[in-house]
C-alpha cells in the first residue's frame, strides 16, 4: 500500500503524537501519518517514566529546556484536565542533606527564579513540618509541580489525532527510508509512505533513523536505564509529595527521588545506569551489536573516560542493594531494605557529543525535508506539547507556509 502525505512522524511517543496534533490543529487540511513500531502508543520512554510534570526549576535560563518546560508544564496540566487524564498539582521539595550541597541548592533556586518558577527556601524545621520522615538541612519548595500518567496522555493524544483525521499505524516499524527529491519515502511492513516532511521522534533510535534518512548527526544516543523500587504498602505514608535530592550539576539526571504516584503507590528512583541495549530494561538485555559499536565509537570511549567514576558508583548501587538503600536513607532515614522492592525501569535516550559529553539541552536538527529530534530527555514529556508546536512550526516552514509557522510559534509562546 502506498500513500502520499504532507508529514510523516516516526515514533508514537508523547512527542511524536504531540507534534502530529500541533500540525493538524494548526491546519486541519494537512495530511499526517504517524508510524509506531510497537503495538501501543508510548511503549518506551513515554510510558516508563516518573510521571512528573516538571516546573522548569533545573534548566539553564535561555535553554530550550527552560523555555519549553515552563510553558509546557502548564499546557500539559490544562491538557490533562480537558481530556480526562488524571492530574494533580502536588508541588515538590528538593532537599539538601549535607552542607556541601547548599551551593547547588542555591544555584537551583536562582535558576528557578530566572525561569519564572516560584521557589520558597525551607529550613530544617519547615522541612520537618511538611515531610516529617525526610532528613534535610535546607530545601526548596516548588508549587508548580504536578503528577499525571503520560501513557494515558499518549492514548488521549492518539484519540484526538483520529478525530483530527490523522492516519495512525501501530506495529509499523520504519524499516527503510529513501530521502532526496520532492518526497521522503518511509517503508514499513504494510505501507510505503511518501512524505513532503519527515519528522523523526524515534527516541532511543532517533540517531539511527536520522542516519537512515541521510543525515549525519553530531550526537549519538546512549541508553541510560532508570530503575525504580516501590515502597511496600504499609509505608506508603513515608512522604506526602515528591521529594528530590540536589542533583549533581555535572549530569543531566535529577537523582533518585521519592514520588507518590496517582494510584497511591510510592516509587523510589530512577537511578541512571548505562544500559547494554537501546531497550535494555534489565541487566540481562544485551545487544552485542551496540556493545561492539560502543567499543569502536570514540564518543562512547570519551564518555566512559569522563564519567567512569559516576558510572561505577551507579552500577554498584544497582547491583548491590545495601549501597542503594544507603543512598535512599540519606533522604529518608526511616526507610530500610525490607520497605523497598524492585519495580519497573525505563531507558533514557541520552545524546552524547563526538567528544563524549552528555548533552543537556533538547536537540532538534533540521535538514532539507526533515526534522530530527535527537535529544529529548526529561522534561520532554512535560514539554511535549510545546516541543510538538516547535517542530510543527518547522514543518510548516518546510512546507513553504512561513505565516503559519510564525503563528504556531506565537500561539505556543515559543
Ligand atoms: C526513567 C525515566 C524517567 C523520566 N521521568 C520523567 C518525568 O517525570 N517527567 C518528564 O517530563 N519526563 C520524564 N522522562 C523523560 C520522558 O519520558 C521523555 O523525555 C519523553 O517520553 C520522550 O518522548 P519521545 O516521544 O521523544 O520518546 P519515546 O516515548 O521513547 O517515543 C519514541 C517512539 O519511537 C518508536 N520508534 C523507534 N524506532 C522506530 C521505528 N524505526 N519505526 C517506528 N517507530 C519507532 C518507539 O517505539 C517509541 O515508541 C523520563 C524518562 C525516563 C526514561
Describe the structure.
The chain is α+β, with helices and mostly antiparallel strands and 414 residues long. The protein has two domains: 2-46 and 151-219 and 361-411, FAD/NAD(P)-binding domain, CATH 3.50.50.60; 88-145 and 222-352, D-Amino Acid Oxidase, subunit A, domain 2 (D-Amino Acid Oxidase, Chain A, domain 2, 2-Layer Sandwich). The protein is 34% helix and 25% strand. The strands form four sheets. Strands 1, 2, 9, 10, 11, 12, 19 and 20 form an eight-stranded mixed β-sheet that branches. Strands 13, 15, 16, 17 and 18 form a five-stranded antiparallel β-sheet that branches. The protein has a four-stranded mixed β-sheet with strand order 6-7-5-14. α1 links the parallel β1 and β2 (32-35). It is globular. The two termini are 38 Å apart. Flavin-adenine dinucleotide is lined by residues 10-16, 35-38, 42-46, 48-52, 54, 173-174, 201-205, 209, 226, 270, 346-348, 376-382. Residues 10-16, 35-38, 42-46, 48-52, 54, 173-174, 201-205, 209, 226, 270, 346-348, 376-382 line the site of flavin-adenine dinucleotide.
